[in-house]
Protein backbone atom coordinates (compact mmCIF):
# COMPACT_ATOMS: atom_id res chain seq x y z
CA UNK A 1 0.00 0.00 0.00
CA UNK A 2 1.24 3.48 -0.80
CA UNK A 3 0.19 6.75 0.78
CA UNK A 4 -0.61 9.96 -1.05
CA UNK A 5 0.61 12.41 1.57
CA UNK A 6 -0.98 15.39 -0.17
CA UNK A 7 -4.40 13.88 0.51
CA UNK A 8 -3.70 12.47 3.99
CA UNK A 9 -5.20 14.58 6.82
CA UNK A 10 -3.74 12.39 9.60
CA UNK A 11 -7.10 11.19 11.01
CA UNK A 12 -5.53 7.86 12.07
CA UNK A 13 -8.44 5.64 11.01
CA UNK A 14 -6.11 3.46 8.93
CA UNK A 15 -3.72 3.14 11.88
CA UNK A 16 -6.61 1.93 14.01
CA UNK A 17 -7.66 -0.89 11.68
CA UNK A 18 -4.42 -2.16 10.10
CA UNK A 19 -4.37 -5.79 11.27
CA UNK A 20 -0.60 -5.91 11.25
CA UNK A 21 -0.13 -2.64 13.11
CA UNK A 22 2.35 -1.34 10.56
CA UNK A 23 0.73 2.06 10.03
CA UNK A 24 1.76 5.07 12.08
CA UNK A 25 0.60 8.65 11.86
CA UNK A 26 3.21 11.22 12.73
CA UNK A 27 2.97 14.93 12.21
CA UNK A 28 -0.58 14.29 10.92
CA UNK A 29 0.83 12.25 8.02
CA UNK A 30 0.53 8.52 7.49
CA UNK A 31 3.56 6.24 7.31
CA UNK A 32 3.34 2.65 6.15
CA UNK A 33 5.97 0.33 7.58
CA UNK A 34 7.34 -2.93 6.23
CA UNK A 35 5.38 -6.17 5.91
CA UNK A 36 2.27 -4.79 4.15
CA UNK A 37 0.22 -7.66 2.67
CA UNK A 38 -2.10 -5.50 0.55
CA UNK A 39 -5.14 -6.56 2.54
CA UNK A 40 -6.74 -3.15 1.77
CA UNK A 41 -8.27 -2.80 5.21
CA UNK A 42 -6.78 0.67 5.59
CA UNK A 43 -8.03 1.71 2.19
CA UNK A 44 -11.64 0.82 3.14
CA UNK A 45 -11.70 3.29 6.04
CA UNK A 46 -9.67 6.20 4.64
CA UNK A 47 -12.13 9.08 4.07
CA UNK A 48 -9.66 11.05 1.95
CA UNK A 49 -8.75 8.40 -0.61
CA UNK A 50 -5.13 8.87 0.48
CA UNK A 51 -4.17 5.20 0.25
CA UNK A 52 -3.34 3.54 -3.03
CA UNK A 53 -2.86 -0.20 -3.57
CA UNK A 54 0.48 -1.32 -4.89
CA UNK A 55 0.56 -3.21 -8.18
CA UNK A 56 0.66 -7.03 -7.74
CA UNK A 57 4.12 -8.19 -6.77
CA UNK A 58 5.84 -11.53 -7.08
CA UNK A 59 5.16 -12.14 -3.40
CA UNK A 60 3.12 -15.30 -2.97
CA UNK A 61 -0.59 -14.87 -2.49
CA UNK A 62 -2.46 -16.61 0.31
CA UNK A 63 -5.65 -18.07 -1.11
CA UNK A 64 -7.20 -19.18 2.16
CA UNK A 65 -9.77 -16.39 2.37
CA UNK A 66 -11.17 -13.66 0.11
CA UNK A 67 -8.58 -11.13 1.33
CA UNK A 68 -5.88 -12.84 -0.76
CA UNK A 69 -2.92 -11.37 1.13
CA UNK A 70 0.37 -11.01 -0.71
CA UNK A 71 2.75 -11.97 2.04
CA UNK A 72 6.36 -10.78 1.95
CA UNK A 73 9.15 -13.22 2.87
CA UNK A 74 9.23 -13.82 6.64
CA UNK A 75 5.95 -11.97 7.27
CA UNK A 76 2.43 -12.97 8.38
CA UNK A 77 -0.85 -12.52 6.57
CA UNK A 78 -3.52 -10.20 7.91
CA UNK A 79 -5.16 -12.90 10.03
CA UNK A 80 -1.81 -13.82 11.61
CA UNK A 81 -2.24 -17.48 10.69
CA UNK A 82 -0.37 -17.79 7.43
CA UNK A 83 3.32 -17.13 7.04
CA UNK A 84 5.69 -16.77 4.11
CA UNK A 85 8.43 -19.29 4.78
CA UNK A 86 11.05 -19.38 2.05
CA UNK A 87 8.51 -18.30 -0.50
CA UNK A 88 5.88 -20.83 0.57
CA UNK A 89 2.64 -19.88 2.34
CA UNK A 90 2.33 -22.10 5.41
CA UNK A 91 -0.14 -22.24 8.27
CA UNK A 92 1.73 -20.80 11.22
CA UNK A 93 0.55 -23.16 13.92
CA UNK A 94 -0.34 -26.83 14.08
CA UNK A 95 -3.35 -29.04 14.25
CA UNK A 96 -4.34 -29.96 17.79
CA UNK A 97 -5.67 -33.30 18.88
CA UNK A 98 -8.79 -33.58 20.97
CA UNK A 99 -6.67 -34.92 23.82
CA UNK A 100 -4.69 -31.67 23.88
CA UNK A 101 -7.81 -29.62 24.64
CA UNK A 102 -9.71 -32.24 26.63
CA UNK A 103 -8.95 -30.62 29.99
CA UNK A 104 -10.43 -27.40 28.68
CA UNK A 105 -13.56 -28.78 27.03
CA UNK A 106 -14.08 -31.57 29.57
CA UNK A 107 -16.45 -34.35 28.76
CA UNK A 108 -18.71 -31.85 27.08
CA UNK A 109 -18.01 -33.08 23.57
CA UNK A 110 -20.41 -35.98 24.00
CA UNK A 111 -20.57 -39.74 24.28
CA UNK A 112 -20.47 -42.63 21.79
CA UNK A 113 -18.10 -43.21 18.88
CA UNK A 114 -18.84 -39.81 17.28
CA UNK A 115 -18.91 -37.89 20.57
CA UNK A 116 -15.33 -36.70 20.31
CA UNK A 117 -13.53 -35.48 17.20
CA UNK A 118 -10.46 -37.42 16.06
CA UNK A 119 -8.61 -34.11 15.74
CA UNK A 120 -9.68 -30.52 16.23
CA UNK A 121 -9.85 -27.66 13.78
CA UNK A 122 -7.34 -25.66 15.85
CA UNK A 123 -4.43 -24.86 13.56
CA UNK A 124 -5.94 -26.73 10.62
CA UNK A 125 -6.13 -23.85 8.15
CA UNK A 126 -8.94 -22.95 5.79
CA UNK A 127 -9.78 -24.17 2.33
CA UNK A 128 -11.02 -21.47 -0.01
CA UNK A 129 -13.06 -21.33 -2.20
CA UNK A 130 -15.28 -23.49 -0.07
CA UNK A 131 -16.34 -26.21 -2.48
CA UNK A 132 -12.98 -27.92 -2.17
CA UNK A 133 -12.50 -30.51 0.60
CA UNK A 134 -11.68 -29.19 4.06
CA UNK A 135 -7.96 -29.11 4.95
CA UNK A 136 -8.21 -32.23 7.12
CA UNK A 137 -10.66 -35.08 6.62
CA UNK A 138 -9.41 -37.90 8.80
CA UNK A 139 -10.58 -41.42 9.53
CA UNK A 140 -10.14 -43.70 12.50
CA UNK A 141 -11.88 -46.43 14.46
CA UNK A 142 -13.73 -45.80 17.71
CA UNK A 143 -15.49 -48.59 19.63
CA UNK A 144 -15.12 -50.78 16.54
CA UNK A 145 -16.87 -48.20 14.33
CA UNK A 146 -15.20 -46.47 11.34
CA UNK A 147 -15.55 -42.74 11.88
CA UNK A 148 -14.55 -39.58 10.07
CA UNK A 149 -13.77 -36.12 11.39
CA UNK A 150 -13.75 -33.16 9.02
CA UNK A 151 -12.03 -30.05 10.36
CA UNK A 152 -11.56 -26.53 9.16
CA UNK A 153 -10.95 -23.03 10.42
CA UNK A 154 -14.20 -21.50 9.27
CA UNK A 155 -14.34 -17.77 8.46
CA UNK A 156 -17.75 -16.79 9.84
CA UNK A 157 -19.07 -13.40 8.79
CA UNK A 158 -22.46 -13.91 10.41
CA UNK A 159 -21.11 -14.07 13.88
CA UNK A 160 -20.87 -12.22 17.13
CA UNK A 161 -20.62 -12.60 20.85
CA UNK A 162 -23.30 -12.56 23.53
CA UNK A 163 -21.91 -11.30 26.81
CA UNK A 164 -23.37 -12.07 30.19
CA UNK A 165 -22.44 -9.36 32.65
CA UNK A 166 -23.30 -10.19 36.24
CA UNK A 167 -24.70 -7.08 37.87
CA UNK A 168 -27.77 -5.63 39.51
CA UNK A 169 -26.77 -2.14 38.50
CA UNK A 170 -28.91 -0.46 35.90
CA UNK A 171 -26.83 -0.08 32.75
CA UNK A 172 -29.43 1.25 30.30
CA UNK A 173 -32.68 0.39 28.60
CA UNK A 174 -33.09 -2.80 26.62
CA UNK A 175 -32.54 -2.30 22.92
CA UNK A 176 -30.13 0.61 23.37
CA UNK A 177 -27.02 0.71 21.19
CA UNK A 178 -23.56 -0.12 22.51
CA UNK A 179 -20.59 1.92 21.39
CA UNK A 180 -16.83 1.99 21.73
CA UNK A 181 -14.54 4.97 21.13
CA UNK A 182 -12.07 4.17 18.39
CA UNK A 183 -11.17 7.35 16.53
CA UNK A 184 -14.80 8.30 16.99
CA UNK A 185 -17.90 6.59 18.34
CA UNK A 186 -18.41 3.11 16.87
CA UNK A 187 -21.61 1.11 17.04
CA UNK A 188 -20.69 -2.46 18.04
CA UNK A 189 -23.87 -3.99 19.46
CA UNK A 190 -26.94 -3.51 21.58
CA UNK A 191 -28.24 -4.20 25.04
CA UNK A 192 -30.54 -7.23 25.21
CA UNK A 193 -32.65 -8.50 28.07
CA UNK A 194 -31.83 -8.84 31.73
CA UNK A 195 -31.55 -12.48 32.68
CA UNK A 196 -31.76 -13.22 36.36
CA UNK A 197 -28.79 -11.37 37.94
CA UNK A 198 -27.11 -10.49 34.65
CA UNK A 199 -27.32 -8.14 31.71
CA UNK A 200 -26.99 -9.66 28.25
CA UNK A 201 -25.11 -7.71 25.59
CA UNK A 202 -25.13 -8.64 21.92
CA UNK A 203 -21.94 -7.55 20.17
CA UNK A 204 -21.19 -7.96 16.50
CA UNK A 205 -23.46 -9.95 14.19
CA UNK A 206 -23.77 -9.59 10.46
CA UNK A 207 -25.53 -6.22 10.33
CA UNK A 208 -22.87 -4.57 12.45
CA UNK A 209 -19.90 -6.37 10.90
CA UNK A 210 -21.02 -5.28 7.44
CA UNK A 211 -21.74 -1.68 8.50
CA UNK A 212 -19.36 1.27 8.22
CA UNK A 213 -18.24 0.51 11.79
CA UNK A 214 -17.81 -3.21 11.06
CA UNK A 215 -14.01 -3.31 10.94
CA UNK A 216 -13.75 -1.37 14.19
CA UNK A 217 -16.38 -3.58 15.86
CA UNK A 218 -14.65 -6.76 14.71
CA UNK A 219 -11.32 -5.54 16.05
CA UNK A 220 -12.81 -4.71 19.46
CA UNK A 221 -14.56 -8.08 19.69
CA UNK A 222 -11.39 -9.89 18.75
CA UNK A 223 -9.53 -8.04 21.47
CA UNK A 224 -12.22 -9.15 23.92
CA UNK A 225 -11.94 -12.77 22.73
CA UNK A 226 -8.20 -12.58 23.30
CA UNK A 227 -8.80 -11.65 26.94
CA UNK A 228 -8.25 -7.91 26.69
CA UNK A 229 -10.38 -5.41 28.57
CA UNK A 230 -12.76 -3.39 26.40
CA UNK A 231 -14.49 -0.14 27.30
CA UNK A 232 -18.07 0.19 26.08
CA UNK A 233 -20.76 2.83 26.43
CA UNK A 234 -24.50 2.17 26.47
CA UNK A 235 -26.60 4.74 24.62
CA UNK A 236 -28.20 7.00 27.31
CA UNK A 237 -26.74 4.62 29.87
CA UNK A 238 -23.54 3.87 31.60
CA UNK A 239 -19.93 3.06 30.71
CA UNK A 240 -18.58 -0.41 31.34
CA UNK A 241 -15.14 -2.01 31.31
CA UNK A 242 -15.39 -5.68 30.45
CA UNK A 243 -12.87 -8.50 30.28
CA UNK A 244 -13.65 -12.17 29.79
CA UNK A 245 -13.81 -14.08 33.07
CA UNK A 246 -13.22 -10.94 35.16
CA UNK A 247 -15.52 -8.85 37.32
CA UNK A 248 -17.19 -6.03 35.36
CA UNK A 249 -16.60 -2.37 36.09
CA UNK A 250 -19.82 -0.42 35.69
CA UNK A 251 -19.93 3.34 35.92
CA UNK A 252 -16.66 3.27 37.83
CA UNK A 253 -17.91 0.64 40.32
CA UNK A 254 -16.26 -2.77 40.30
CA UNK A 255 -19.16 -5.20 40.64
CA UNK A 256 -17.96 -7.90 43.01
CA UNK A 257 -20.98 -10.06 43.65
CA UNK A 258 -23.79 -11.49 41.61
CA UNK A 259 -27.10 -11.45 43.40
CA UNK A 260 -28.51 -14.66 44.76
CA UNK A 261 -31.99 -13.91 43.42
CA UNK A 262 -34.46 -11.05 43.00
CA UNK A 263 -35.80 -9.22 46.05
CA UNK A 264 -38.67 -11.68 46.36
CA UNK A 265 -36.48 -14.77 45.92
CA UNK A 266 -34.01 -13.39 48.45
CA UNK A 267 -36.87 -12.86 50.90
CA UNK A 268 -38.04 -16.43 50.36
CA UNK A 269 -34.54 -17.90 50.61
CA UNK A 270 -33.48 -16.15 53.79
CA UNK A 271 -36.80 -15.68 55.59
CA UNK A 272 -35.67 -17.36 58.86
CA UNK A 273 -32.68 -14.99 59.05
CA UNK A 274 -34.86 -11.99 58.18
CA UNK A 275 -37.29 -12.97 60.89
CA UNK A 276 -34.55 -12.42 63.46
CA UNK A 277 -32.80 -9.51 61.73
CA UNK A 278 -35.41 -6.76 62.17
CA UNK A 279 -39.10 -6.00 62.61
CA UNK A 280 -39.23 -5.29 58.88
CA UNK A 281 -36.83 -6.09 56.03
CA UNK A 282 -37.00 -4.53 52.59
CA UNK A 283 -34.91 -6.03 49.78
CA UNK A 284 -34.46 -3.35 47.12
CA UNK A 285 -34.15 -4.79 43.65
CA UNK A 286 -34.74 -3.57 40.12
CA UNK A 287 -36.69 -6.70 39.20
CA UNK A 288 -38.83 -7.30 42.28
CA UNK A 289 -38.49 -5.52 45.60
CA UNK A 290 -39.46 -7.63 48.60
CA UNK A 291 -41.30 -6.52 51.75
CA UNK A 292 -40.74 -9.28 54.26
CA UNK A 293 -43.69 -8.99 56.65
CA UNK A 294 -46.14 -8.89 53.73
CA UNK A 295 -44.36 -11.53 51.66
CA UNK A 296 -45.74 -15.12 51.79
CA UNK A 297 -42.55 -16.30 53.50
CA UNK A 298 -42.95 -13.72 56.26
CA UNK A 299 -46.60 -14.56 56.72
CA UNK A 300 -45.77 -18.29 56.78
CA UNK A 301 -43.36 -17.62 59.64
CA UNK A 302 -46.11 -15.50 61.29
CA UNK A 303 -44.04 -12.34 61.29
CA UNK A 304 -46.29 -9.51 62.51
CA UNK A 305 -47.23 -7.24 59.59
CA UNK A 306 -45.32 -3.97 59.91
CA UNK A 307 -47.08 -0.62 59.41
CA UNK A 308 -44.90 0.10 56.36
CA UNK A 309 -46.13 0.38 52.79
CA UNK A 310 -43.86 0.55 49.76
CA UNK A 311 -43.76 2.75 46.73
CA UNK A 312 -43.89 1.15 43.26
CA UNK A 313 -46.40 -1.12 41.60
CA UNK A 314 -47.54 -4.01 43.74
CA UNK A 315 -47.27 -7.30 41.88
CA UNK A 316 -48.47 -9.69 44.58
CA UNK A 317 -48.24 -9.65 48.36
CA UNK A 318 -44.82 -8.40 49.45
CA UNK A 319 -43.56 -8.09 45.85
CA UNK A 320 -43.20 -4.68 44.17
CA UNK A 321 -42.02 -3.36 40.81
CA UNK A 322 -39.98 -0.17 41.13
CA UNK A 323 -38.58 2.12 38.47
CA UNK A 324 -35.15 1.19 37.13
CA UNK A 325 -32.28 3.52 37.75
CA UNK A 326 -28.83 4.02 39.10
CA UNK A 327 -29.95 3.84 42.73
CA UNK A 328 -29.96 0.90 45.14
CA UNK A 329 -30.35 -2.56 43.60
CA UNK A 330 -30.77 -1.14 40.10
CA UNK A 331 -33.85 0.88 41.15
CA UNK A 332 -34.20 4.66 41.08
CA UNK A 333 -34.11 4.76 44.90
CA UNK A 334 -31.03 6.72 45.95
CA UNK A 335 -31.99 7.34 49.57
CA UNK A 336 -33.17 3.92 50.82
CA UNK A 337 -35.96 5.33 53.01
CA UNK A 338 -37.55 6.77 49.86
CA UNK A 339 -38.83 3.26 49.10
CA UNK A 340 -41.23 3.68 52.04
CA UNK A 341 -44.38 5.27 50.66
CA UNK A 342 -46.43 5.30 53.83
CA UNK A 343 -46.12 4.47 57.53
CA UNK A 344 -48.99 4.09 59.93
CA UNK A 345 -47.15 5.95 62.68
CA UNK A 346 -49.83 5.04 65.22
CA UNK A 347 -48.70 1.42 64.96
CA UNK A 348 -44.99 2.19 65.19
CA UNK A 349 -43.29 1.68 68.53
CA UNK A 350 -40.12 3.04 70.06
CA UNK A 351 -37.12 0.98 68.93
CA UNK A 352 -38.96 -0.73 66.05
CA UNK A 353 -36.28 -1.89 63.61
CA UNK A 354 -36.10 -1.73 59.82
CA UNK A 355 -33.40 -3.23 57.60
CA UNK A 356 -33.13 -2.18 53.97
CA UNK A 357 -30.66 -4.07 51.79
CA UNK A 358 -29.75 -4.78 48.21
CA UNK A 359 -29.99 -8.43 47.12
CA UNK A 360 -26.20 -8.79 47.36
CA UNK A 361 -25.92 -7.04 50.71
CA UNK A 362 -23.44 -4.65 49.06
CA UNK A 363 -25.43 -1.71 50.39
CA UNK A 364 -27.59 -1.92 53.50
CA UNK A 365 -28.96 0.39 56.14
CA UNK A 366 -30.43 -0.34 59.55
CA UNK A 367 -32.92 1.95 61.27
CA UNK A 368 -34.68 2.27 64.62
CA UNK A 369 -37.94 4.15 65.17
CA UNK A 370 -37.43 7.09 67.51
CA UNK A 371 -40.38 9.30 68.43
CA UNK A 372 -41.77 9.97 64.96
CA UNK A 373 -39.17 8.72 62.48
CA UNK A 374 -36.61 6.10 61.52
CA UNK A 375 -33.06 6.97 62.55
CA UNK A 376 -30.15 5.10 60.93
CA UNK A 377 -27.79 3.36 63.32
CA UNK A 378 -25.64 0.27 63.82
CA UNK A 379 -27.31 -2.99 62.77
CA UNK A 380 -28.47 -5.57 65.29
CA UNK A 381 -26.25 -8.68 65.65
CA UNK A 382 -29.02 -10.70 63.95
CA UNK A 383 -29.01 -8.26 61.01
CA UNK A 384 -25.24 -8.59 60.74
CA UNK A 385 -25.59 -12.38 60.66
CA UNK A 386 -28.24 -12.18 57.94
CA UNK A 387 -26.16 -9.79 55.82
CA UNK A 388 -23.11 -12.05 56.13
CA UNK A 389 -25.12 -15.09 55.06
CA UNK A 390 -26.56 -13.09 52.18
CA UNK A 391 -23.13 -11.95 50.93
CA UNK A 392 -21.65 -15.44 51.27
CA UNK A 393 -24.51 -16.85 49.20
CA UNK A 394 -23.71 -14.58 46.26
CA UNK A 395 -21.36 -15.86 43.58
CA UNK A 396 -18.56 -13.66 42.31
CA UNK A 397 -19.57 -11.41 39.44
CA UNK A 398 -17.88 -12.03 36.14
CA UNK A 399 -18.15 -11.40 32.43
CA UNK A 400 -18.91 -14.58 30.47
CA UNK A 401 -19.46 -14.95 26.75
CA UNK A 402 -20.78 -17.29 24.13
CA UNK A 403 -19.76 -17.09 20.51
CA UNK A 404 -22.84 -17.04 18.26
CA UNK A 405 -22.52 -18.05 14.65
CA UNK A 406 -23.78 -20.27 11.89
CA UNK A 407 -21.91 -22.87 9.89
CA UNK A 408 -24.99 -23.53 7.84
CA UNK A 409 -23.66 -21.51 4.92
CA UNK A 410 -20.52 -22.00 2.91
CA UNK A 411 -18.68 -23.60 5.84
CA UNK A 412 -20.50 -26.83 5.01
CA UNK A 413 -19.02 -27.13 1.56
CA UNK A 414 -15.66 -28.49 2.70
CA UNK A 415 -17.48 -31.50 4.14
CA UNK A 416 -19.90 -32.48 1.43
CA UNK A 417 -21.14 -31.76 -2.03
CA UNK A 418 -24.71 -31.89 -0.65
CA UNK A 419 -24.80 -29.31 2.14
CA UNK A 420 -28.48 -29.84 3.04
CA UNK A 421 -27.70 -33.47 3.82
CA UNK A 422 -25.06 -32.39 6.32
CA UNK A 423 -27.47 -29.99 8.03
CA UNK A 424 -30.14 -32.68 8.30
CA UNK A 425 -27.62 -35.19 9.62
CA UNK A 426 -26.51 -32.70 12.29
CA UNK A 427 -30.09 -32.19 13.45
CA UNK A 428 -30.72 -35.95 13.39
CA UNK A 429 -27.72 -36.48 15.67
CA UNK A 430 -25.76 -38.39 13.02
CA UNK A 431 -23.07 -35.71 12.82
CA UNK A 432 -21.53 -34.25 15.94
CA UNK A 433 -20.41 -30.64 15.57
CA UNK A 434 -17.72 -29.38 17.93
CA UNK A 435 -15.88 -26.07 18.09
CA UNK A 436 -12.25 -26.50 19.01
CA UNK A 437 -13.37 -29.73 20.68
CA UNK A 438 -16.08 -27.99 22.74
CA UNK A 439 -19.71 -28.93 22.36
CA UNK A 440 -21.91 -26.05 21.19
CA UNK A 441 -25.66 -25.63 21.65
CA UNK A 442 -27.22 -25.95 18.21
CA UNK A 443 -30.43 -24.04 17.63
CA UNK A 444 -33.44 -26.00 16.46
CA UNK A 445 -34.79 -25.22 13.00
CA UNK A 446 -32.84 -24.80 9.80
CA UNK A 447 -29.12 -24.23 9.37
CA UNK A 448 -26.37 -25.02 11.83
CA UNK A 449 -26.60 -22.01 14.11
CA UNK A 450 -24.83 -22.43 17.40
CA UNK A 451 -23.70 -20.90 20.65
CA UNK A 452 -20.48 -22.00 22.31
CA UNK A 453 -18.75 -20.95 25.52
CA UNK A 454 -15.70 -19.01 24.33
CA UNK A 455 -13.75 -19.99 27.42
CA UNK A 456 -13.86 -23.61 26.24
CA UNK A 457 -12.11 -22.72 23.00
CA UNK A 458 -8.33 -22.79 23.39
CA UNK A 459 -7.01 -19.30 23.98
CA UNK A 460 -5.64 -17.75 20.81
CA UNK A 461 -7.41 -20.07 18.37
CA UNK A 462 -10.05 -17.55 17.24
CA UNK A 463 -8.65 -15.29 14.56
CA UNK A 464 -9.88 -12.25 12.69
CA UNK A 465 -9.82 -11.87 8.95
CA UNK A 466 -10.40 -8.29 7.79
CA UNK A 467 -13.28 -9.28 5.50
CA UNK A 468 -14.31 -8.90 8.47
CA UNK A 469 -15.06 -12.33 9.88
CA UNK A 470 -14.03 -14.41 12.84
CA UNK A 471 -12.18 -17.59 12.07
CA UNK A 472 -13.00 -20.43 14.41
CA UNK A 473 -12.05 -24.11 14.52
CA UNK A 474 -14.94 -26.41 13.63
CA UNK A 475 -15.11 -30.20 13.58
CA UNK A 476 -17.77 -32.47 12.13
CA UNK A 477 -17.55 -36.06 13.36
CA UNK A 478 -19.64 -38.91 11.98
CA UNK A 479 -19.47 -42.55 11.00
CA UNK A 480 -17.83 -43.33 7.66
CA UNK A 481 -21.23 -44.64 6.57
CA UNK A 482 -22.89 -41.28 7.31
CA UNK A 483 -20.04 -39.45 5.59
CA UNK A 484 -20.73 -41.44 2.44
CA UNK A 485 -24.50 -41.01 2.77
CA UNK A 486 -24.28 -37.21 2.93
CA UNK A 487 -22.04 -37.02 -0.13
CA UNK A 488 -18.81 -36.33 1.79
CA UNK A 489 -15.52 -35.74 0.03
CA UNK A 490 -14.48 -39.40 0.39
CA UNK A 491 -11.55 -38.91 -1.97
CA UNK A 492 -9.89 -36.61 0.59
CA UNK A 493 -10.07 -38.94 3.59
CA UNK A 494 -6.70 -39.76 5.17
CA UNK A 495 -6.02 -41.93 8.21
CA UNK A 496 -5.75 -39.79 11.32
CA UNK A 497 -2.25 -41.13 12.01
CA UNK A 498 -1.00 -39.72 8.69
CA UNK A 499 -2.57 -36.37 9.41
CA UNK A 500 -0.93 -36.28 12.82
CA UNK A 501 2.45 -37.16 11.30
CA UNK A 502 2.02 -34.11 9.09
CA UNK A 503 1.07 -32.15 12.19
CA UNK A 504 4.35 -33.07 13.85
CA UNK A 505 6.30 -31.76 10.87
CA UNK A 506 4.49 -28.42 11.10
CA UNK A 507 5.81 -25.63 13.24
S1 LIG B 1 -2.98 -2.95 3.15
FE1 LIG B 1 -3.39 -4.04 5.08
S2 LIG B 1 -1.39 -4.57 5.90
FE2 LIG B 1 -1.07 -3.01 4.31
S3 LIG B 1 -1.02 -1.10 5.44
FE3 LIG B 1 -3.11 -1.39 4.73
S4 LIG B 1 -4.16 -2.41 6.42
FE4 LIG B 1 -1.96 -2.60 6.81
S1 LIG C 1 -6.29 -12.87 5.91
FE1 LIG C 1 -5.21 -14.76 6.40
S2 LIG C 1 -6.33 -16.33 5.29
FE2 LIG C 1 -6.95 -14.39 4.43
S3 LIG C 1 -5.59 -14.12 2.72
FE3 LIG C 1 -4.65 -13.07 4.44
S4 LIG C 1 -3.28 -14.58 5.36
FE4 LIG C 1 -4.65 -15.66 4.00
Unreliable runs: none
Determine the fraction of residues in helical runs and give it as a percent range: 10-25%
Number of helices: 12
How large is the share of residues in beta strands?
A: 25-35%
Radius of gyration: 29 Å
Quickly give the structural class: alpha+beta
Query: Main β-sheet, in a few words?
Result: 11 strands, antiparallel
Query: Average pLDDT, to the nearest integer?
Result: 93
Q: Please give the domain count.
A: 3
* Total strand segments: 32
Distance between the termini: 29 Å
Structure description:
- With 507 residues, the protein is an alpha+beta fold.
- The protein has three domains: 1-92, Alpha-Beta Plaits (2-Layer Sandwich); 106-258 and 398-499, no CATH class; 263-392, no CATH class.
- Helices cover 18% and strands 31% of the residues.
- It is built from twelve helices and 32 strands.
- The strands form seven sheets. Strands 16-15-14-13-10-11-12-9-26-29-28 form an eleven-stranded antiparallel sheet. It has a seven-stranded mixed sheet with strand order 20-21-18-17-23-24-25, covered by helices on one side.
- A hairpin with a 3-residue loop joins strand 30 (463-465) and strand 31.
- Helix 7 runs antiparallel to helix 9.
- The longest helix is centred in the middle third of the chain and has 12 residues, at 214-225.
- The protein is globular and about 90 Å long.
- The model has no long low-confidence stretch (mean pLDDT 93).
- One iron/sulfur cluster (SF4) binds at residues 62, 64-65, 67-69, 77-79, 81-82, 465.
